[in-house]
Amino acid sequence: MKALTPIVVVVALLATVPLITASNVVLNFLVVALLTALVGQGWNLLGGYGGQYSFGHAAFFGTGTYATAILQVRYGINAWLGFAIGIAAGAAVGAFIGALSFRSGLKGSYFALVTLAFAEVLRIIASVAPITGAGVGTLIKLDLRPEALQFQSRVPFYWIILGLVAVSLVIMRMIENSRFGAYLVALRENEDAAKALGVNTTLIKLGAMTVSAAIAAAGGCFYAQYFLFIDAGIAYGPWISIEALLAPIVGGAGTVFGPLLGALVVKSLGEATKLVAGDAPGLDLVIYGCVLILIVAFAPSGIAGLLRKAWQRFTVMESLRPEEPHG
Amino acid sequence: MVEPLLRVDGVSKRFGGLLAVDNVSLSVQSGRITALIGPNGAGKTTLFATISGFLTPSSGRIYHRGEDITGVPPYRLARRGIARTFQIVRPFAGLTVHENIAIGAHLSRRSRAAARDAAAHVAQLVGLEQFLDKPAANLTVAGRKRLELARALATEPGLLLLDEVLAGLNPTELAAMVPTIRAIADRGTTIVMIEHVMQAVMSLAQHVYVLAEGRILTDGSPQAVVGDARVIEAYLGRGAAARLALAGAAHV
Predict the structure, then answer these.
(1) CB–CB of B75 and A199 under 8 A?
(2) Distances in whole angstroms, Cα of residue A163 to Cα of each of A156, A160, A169
């Protein structure tokens, strides 16, 4: 299929990295960047395509991490199964918050605040509830077997996160080429006009939020297996909500490759900051804030938008070249 | 008597202390063009919003093909074959003209390709075919009015509610738009239009309702309605009809 060609090319290129280098630093960097891209893709579906700006994707990410960890640690459930249940649990939380906010007609900043509030409530509950390990957090026992979804080397983790990102890219492209996707973009552009044309906007938004939450939760499940330790601040903290929206907005919200592009740029900036300024706490957030301001002010459609504009200018100049001046 | 396609029965809409629509009843016969006229602030757009499900009436009922549709949400009404345009145009500004129309065409078509094909066909019908790949934001006022019409038409409605699709057009654009609307009616779509451009109302409408201060003042054929002293007074003020008659007499 022609629409999938760019995705195949990009994923194939990324897949060559472990064949070229065995450097743990490089692989770790890419795993974290791809994880950001995955969670960002979740945000992108709801925020970029649907125009519903969530400030609380931590609610879904965190639900994924805790479901994966708790099911293994407390109930002895297999990690792979826990991973799948974690995705479903995240989707369920998304559907629940979505149903409450969209049915009561919350839009714009009100929707953003409600999602933020839900994530914060979950964070506070997780920091006191015994089942989450409260303030101590939850440690997944080291068990380096593929059956337990743990590996000696970083390479298998790299394949898994790359696979998840690939699936999210394909899902995004399929949604783009479907009636559901067309309706989602239409309601972003003008909700009343969409309603008048027969679009059940509440249902479309709810569907987008559920899939969006499932993707973000998949990122959370992966996080738990990769780092093997979580606490309330990691799982439900605002950091992941910010990264989830920063990557697509920097890369280009409402485009398939925006979150991946944005995640690579943002994470590279983060690493560069560390090199220059050392590990000063919070400095990366300051940098993120500055990047966000610059992007919103000068490139509202992100890096993808800048590239598209440059390409248009290039093609226009090409098309003008053969013409002789008249008069 | 045949059940009318649309019947509004004693509908009122109150916003706090303001009674915007006051006990309005009207009926729309299938296959005709019905016009709703009246001075600014008469409640025409509020009445339209109530019929199209964007507002729920404070009292009264609305029937479509004999079935009660009061309070049914707009997207369901669209699926029943009731489409509307907006007085203040609401294009999907970031999308192309083609995509805008395709959203309407998706109502009865799941596949993207089928919706886009149907959209191209509708664009031809309303004279937008040369703008298909342009962003909707780049259209002129006349182009946006046509786009409103095209999107609504793409849902293949049986009943089309047009809210001032002719307002703001220059005489040339107007002359081009009137036949477009007539062609839609000739294809069997029933039309209810709010319109200020009387020349168009006179040439298009078979039946006219006059709304003033939220109430139906009178109704009838366009010729009968414009000669009605109450209608002239609603537009021009108390005593205007008598003054006009005097002035007319003086000229003879």
Answers:
(1) yes
(2) 10, 5, 10
